[in-house]
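A brief tutorial aside. Many learners find it easier to grasp structure tokens once they have seen a single protein encoded end to end. The record that follows does exactly this for Bifunctional protein Aas. Read the sequence first, then the structure, and try to relate runs of similar tokens to stretches of the chain.
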Amino acid sequence: MLLFAIGNVGWTILGALAVACVGLVVLAVVSPRRFVRFIVRPILEMLYRKQVVGGENLPRDGGAVLICNHVSWLDGILLLWLLPRNARFIVDGGNFDGRVARYLASAFDTILMTANPKSIARALKTGREGLLQGDQIAIFPEGTITRSGQLQAFRPGVTKLLKGNDVPIVPMWLEGMWGSVFSFSKGKFFWKLPSLPRRSLALHIGKPLPHDTPLEKMRSEVQRLGAEAMIAARQQMPVLPQRIIRTWKRRGGRLKAADSSGAEVGGRQMLMRTIILRRLITREVLDSRDSEPTVGILLPPSVAAVATNVALAFDRRTSANLNYTVSSEVLNQCIDAAGIKHVLTSAKFMEKMDFDLNTNLVLLEELKDKVSLLDKLVGVAVAYLLPSPIVDRMLGLQKISCDDLLTVIFTSGSTGTPKGVMLTHANISHNVEAIDKAVRLSTEDVVLGVLPFFHSFGYAVTLWAVQTLGPAGIYHFNPLDARQVGKLAEKYGATVLLGTPTFLRGYLRRIEPKQFAKMDVVVAGAEKMPADLFEAFEKKFGVRPVEGYGTTELSPLVSVNIPPTRSYAKYQPDRSEGSVGRPLPGISAKVISPDDGVELAAGQDGMLLVTGPNVMKGYMGREDLTAEAVQDGWYVTGDIANVDKDGFLHITGRLSRFSKIGGEMVPHIRIEEELDRLLGEGQDPDEDQLRVCVTAVPDEKKGERLIVLHLPTDKDPDTLRQGLRDAGLPNLFVPSRDSFIEVAEIPLLGTGKLDLKGARDAAAEAVGE
């Protein structure tokens, strides 16, 4: 009886399975779409977490064109899973050769096309007919999967699709697939290990756009959604103090940091020293975290400066690297603004300085004698014995929020009193991730760290990016000391250099080609790169610099041209000389009219606004200035720029570097470029230097008067003025003969940037204003 009962149960199960199989076959034939969803949906639910933001912006019925970024091979399937209504995709038929692929395509009424004009025309015609019938037609306007994570240029197919239709355009952004095995991260599809066990996906859907929206405006809206998505996902960004622990442990005994004082430290040794320093500072110097959240640092770029900054981060304090190139008065203003009680510095460094500061100076050398046996044992245990998660718990790093302050960086003061820019853990972490995607720093790289840590680029890149992404950092306190920079580059085999055009000019004159023999990447920022400097640098050192753009308030990097040797994009342009590159992933830039705030078309100059997770938390203690600078989440840069049709950003000037003369805006930089060319004629490119600066003083009749500060030259003002006219500049752009002022040197800040306030003051003094 028991065997009979079991047999009946078995037959029942087999019968049920047979019926289910027949049902699935019938479903596969009768309703392919439901069949595929039935099979695929559970798999996607297991692999991904999903979120749809702005679903109310999708039309409930009727035709619409959906446009979205394209990051991975799965984007189409994922969008079909995330969207409430079916969307008919226009895709490359070459990816649907097999029977299974064509079955999947037919299940969702996918429109296939091949790379020939007739096929493309048929696909567009089918899409237009679908729109008239009330279908949602989806398209990836980039035309291909991004190789860099950046949004590529939009192709005109979407505008052709809309021809004869007045349906809305719905912009979308799919966030979460970059880094997956289906994306091109790490330079390859598929052949890499998954970076996350279960990825979180978010589809951000924007408000519908009119059918006649220009292509560049469509792209701008999709990019804005990308910034919105990254801001919403900022809590998922790596916590840098946790990440640096893992990086230093993995580095082991290999060189991780060195400087011109002779210090050389491996990864685990760096961790041990930093842990010991953190214990000393908290025990011997600082008050409680609540009463002393911000601590000052007055150190040049060095191994000690790296350890000090990271030690404060390990203690969940906010660091403020102070600018040692300014006066005591300015330093005290910064100290008061940040409420700094203690400044960590070095006796050797302070011997060279003449500061009178209103705070307690702590000399790091004096802490060495206070290291106990327990301090050493804890340092060894953390660096060599304990797993990273346990170290995180010991230090309380799991308590760090993405919006907690990591640092306060005071602006350069090029236009006045420095302001304390508050940057969060998420701000700097996003920039580190962006640098990793753009420059792809590896464990084999050696980065020359000549930018001071009070400079936002130096802090975010040569400190945190270098120390968390794997390469070794070689530090020197004076970026203008070309001879020592060359020696360090040769000794350690430097491969990456980040600097300003001013620094590069000095290196051209004083560094031998053999010293930069291994140099592979040179990125310049902070000021416009002269065209001849590209050529001269490449001719001498064999590496062509690329330009990037950023500001302290944006943590700082916004965009960069991808260096040629780090580019994966064989068929996608990822650099455009003369531009500062495309905005990095998660960052959106737009150009508006300064008069009415309307977003301008491609190629039109206007005010540059930037949004993304890199936008500062605000100016410390200056809510009024913060409200002026950050409007509806967009940082108003003060720079005049344009975005070309391919999405590359061109900085054409700064609002403060324009003069309004006779009712017209006159750009200082445009005049400077021509004067620099004229002054440099007949000179050896290796002797190139900053020769000229154009500024202005008030003028009763015309509003402002142009003033030219220039180094000694054998060319008289009349020759230079004629040269400006010959270059096609309007008469309004040509300074008067008595407006040419010879100076011994052009005013510069410690960061290498032009000192605009110093230039204005020098001009005013020279003309008696």
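Self-check: The chain has three domains: 49-232, 240-651, 662-766. If you spotted this yourself, you are ready for the next section.
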